[in-house]
Amino acid sequence: MKKIEVIASGSTIEEARASAVEQLNAPEEAEVKIEIISEGKGKILGLFGGSPAEVKAYYEVESDDFEKVKAYIDTILRSLGINDSEINISVEGEDLRINVSCQEDYGSVIGRRGETLDAIQYLVRLVVNRENDSFKHISINVGNYREKREATLKALAKKNASRVRKYGRNVVLEPMNPYERRIIHTTIQEIEGVTSHSVGSDDERKVVITLEDGVKPLQGGGNYNRNRGGNYNRGRGRNGGYNGQKKAPEADPNRAPKKDFEGSLYGKIEVSNDSAE
Question: How many CB atoms lie under 10 A from the CB of residue 99?
Answer without folding.
Answer: 17
